[in-house]
Amino acid sequence: MKSIAFFDFDGTITSKDTLIEFIRFTVGDFKFIKGIILLSPILILFKLNLIKNDKAKEKMFSYFFKNTDKVAFRKKATEYSLYHIPKIIRTQAMQRILWHKKNKHEVVIVSASIESWLKPWCDKNNIKLISTKVEFKNNILTGNFATKNCHGIEKVNQIKKNYALDQYSTIYAYGDSQGDKALLSIANKSYYKPFRKNHN
Asked: Is residue 200 part of a domain?
């Protein structure tokens, strides 16, 4: 029987949130801070659990990227993915991924972050990816998501669409937040915040 390992990305494999980092990388600190101030009512509602994660995230993404040209966006996303994501990868996480690959386990990242800036890094490291996709119309970003935000139970829904879990004898899962509880629940070997400095 086969083994498979599912990894959350932001906070688990990385030390920083890639959505925030990508926005800052793309628009600069001044526009980022200005945007966060303007978005603060939505962010406060999210913190108070009065607006769902997916709506808050989509509004933030839309504010910064709506009407962006597809080619320009993907170019920026690829640059960020290949040259900046490696700087925020946790060493222990990468070592664990390499251990799984050495043992011929399938490795899949399951992330609420956007496919555009995760896929180039995943492709380079030969890792499969399930993540949130954004919508383009006439090669322009609409500011909307093309798929459901891959967060919470949606991570499990997407995994089950893509993988027959009964075909695997061992299922590993790695996460770091409340949004990963559903992901961790489907594994027979689950790890919460495993790659922090105070963990082995």
From this structure: no
Residue written as token pair 């009964």: 166
CATH code at position 68: 3.40.50.1000
Listing DSSP states for 145-167 in one string gives: ESS----THHHHHHHHHH--GGG
Residue 199 within any structural domain of the chain: no
Query: What's the pLDDT band for 46 if we cut at 50, 70, 90?
Result: confident
Neighbours of 115 (CB within 10 A): 19
Which of the 8 DSSP states describes residue 28? Answer: -
Tell me the C-alpha distance between 87 and 99, whole Å: 20
Question: How many domains is the chain built from?
Answer: 1
Q: Is residue 107 part of a domain?
A: yes
Phi-psi region of 63 (alpha: psi -120 to 50; beta: other; left: phi over 0): alpha
For 44, phi then psi, to 5°, come to -65, -45
pTM over 0.90, yes/no:
yes
pLDDT at 8 > cutoff 60: yes
